[in-house]
Design brief:
Blueprint: H1 12-34, H2 43-54, H3 57-90, H4 92-107, H5 110-120, H6 126-148, H7 152-160, H8 165-203, H9 209-218, H10 222-253
Length: 254
């Protein structure tokens, strides 16, 4: 008798190709059905536009600067979120002061912060600031929970054997929180990228992907809009994969 709960296994590479072929087919069919490139350009038209953009130095400058700007904000967010997680766990007063603010940041729409940041800081700094702001709550929450769930028996053992603070941190706390920290970083890097690009669309810094998206929309260059969107998705995918590989190698090294 056939077991309907058993799934037919497919190699990951083949699965990816089948999925890509299917959705490109849906995209192409929809474009042909609508018949208006202004609304939905076909895959071939978008690919041609992407190749044309890639032939320009300004395209690579925009991609590189956006990457550096947003990755800088992501790094700052990870550091700030990590430090705040430790401090708010250790000191009740700091927890009372900062925890409500972090929860407000997590609940507030990113567009509100972008508009406010435009009033506070220069346009070129807004994407990095927004990326940082979106990362802090994710890292803070994950680390805060991980620290609180550290095995009490291990902590008591460290106290019995009189481990130094550094030794306790290295042998107990870091191994305990590292999985949660890695997962938080992997989640927040995509969030930082998307929010940073959204900030670029609104604040229009020079040489940025978001500015390219904005002007493609303003001038109704839909193939360019799709091409820039493809760049955003591709770079987000690459960043997440590289970070996942880096985490995996670090874990394997230990």
């Amino acid at each position: 008798m056939t077991n309907f709960t058993t799934r037919n296994k497919m190699p990951p590479s083949l699965k990816g190709l089948v999925s890509a072929a299917f959705w490109i087919g849906v995209w192409s069919g929809t474009s042909l059905l609508i018949g208006q490139e202004l609304l939905i350009p076909g895959p071939v038209s978008v690919l041609r536009r992407l190749i044309a953009l890639a032939g320009r130095l300004s395209f690579w400058q925009a991609a590189g600067i956006s990457l550096l700007r947003i990755f800088g904000g992501f790094t700052a967010g990870v550091l700030i979120g990590g430090v705040l997680a430790v401090l708010t766990f250790r000191f009740e007063l700091l927890d009372a002061l900062f925890s409500p603010v972090i929860r407000i940041i997590r609940a507030t729409p990113v567009a509100s912060f972008i508009i406010l940041a435009l009033l506070w800081i220069g346009h070129s700094l807004v994407p990095a600031f927004i990326s940082m702001l979106m990362v802090v709550p994710v890292v803070w929450q994950s680390l805060r929970v991980a620290i609180s769930e550290t095995d009490v028996s291990l902590i008591e053992m460290a106290q019995i054997y009189r481990f130094s603070a550094v030794k306790t941190l290295k042998l107990i706390y870091i191994p305990s929180v590292l999985p949660a920290f890695s997962a938080a970083c992997l989640t927040s890097i995509g969030l930082a990228w998307k929010s940073g690009i959204a900030a670029e669309v609104l604040c229009l810094p020079r040489n940025s992907i978001g500015t390219g998206l904005y002007y493609s929309k303003i001038y109704l260059e839909t193939p360019s809009l799709f091409a820039w969107t493809a760049v955003v998705v591709t770079l987000s995918f690459i960043l997440e994969k590289l970070f996942a590989v880096a985490i995996g190698k670090r874990g394997a090294g230990k």
